[in-house]
Amino acid sequence: MKASDDFIRRLPKAELHIHIEGSFEPELMFEIAHRNGVHIPFDSVEAVRAAYEFEDLQSFLDIYYQGMGVMLAERDFYDLTMAYLRRARDDGVVHTEIFFDPQGHTGRGVAFETVLNGIWKALRDGERTLGITSRLIMCFLRHLDEDDALRTLDQAMAFRDRIAGVGLDSSEVGHPPGKFERVFTRAREAGLVAVAHAGEEGPPAYVEEALDLLQVARIDHGNRALESMALVKRLAAEKIPLTVCPLSNLKLCVVTDLRDHPLKRMLEAGLVVTVNSDDPAYFGGYVLDNFTAARDALDLSADDIVTLARNSIAASWADEVRKQRWLAEIDAMAAASI
Ligand code: ADE
Ligand code: ZN
Question: Would the pTM count as exceeding 0.85?
Answer without folding.
Answer: yes
